[in-house]
Fold this sequence. Notes:
Blueprint: H1 10-22, E1 26-30, E2 36-40, E3 47-51, H2 54-64
Antiparallel strand pairs: 1-2, 2-3
Amino acid sequence: MVVIYGSETPAVRKRLAPIRRRYPHWRIWRGVGGLFYARKYLTSPPRILRRPTLRELGTELRKEAPPATAPEPCPEWFTNLTGKA
């Protein structure tokens, strides 16, 4: 049985997979209202980012990542969920 929380359909999960691999210390998901969220594990108080697009969320994640481990921009951030640039 597959449980899908919020609006994380297989298409959304596929779009988020590369970002999740680049930021393993963050839980990244798309909320029911369509916003994208990122929550850093093991932080108190919780560090949560909320942005309307993957591009904006990616920009914020790059700012949050330590400089020594900041990844290159992920190409998936520059397309919307329909796969169009």
